[in-house]
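pinging the channel bc i need a second pair of eyes. not urgent but kinda urgent?? the chain im working w is below, pasted from the shared doc
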Amino acid sequence: MIRDDKAFITLLEKSSKLELDVTLKDGTRDETLVYEVGGFDPAKWQPLGKAAKR
């Protein structure tokens, strides 16, 4: 989902909320997810390992 951690973290530092437009798995409708990200501390960011491609 997030391909460039460094750019994503830079954006989070400047944001108070994150909005993601998603389509539900069954394809029946689109939805916007909103996450409050105020107070994000990049020093605590734990990058995930690379996922295997399916």
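so DSSP finds one helix and two strands in the chain. and The CA atoms of residues 25 and 31 lie 11 Å apart. — does that match what u expected or am i reading it wrong
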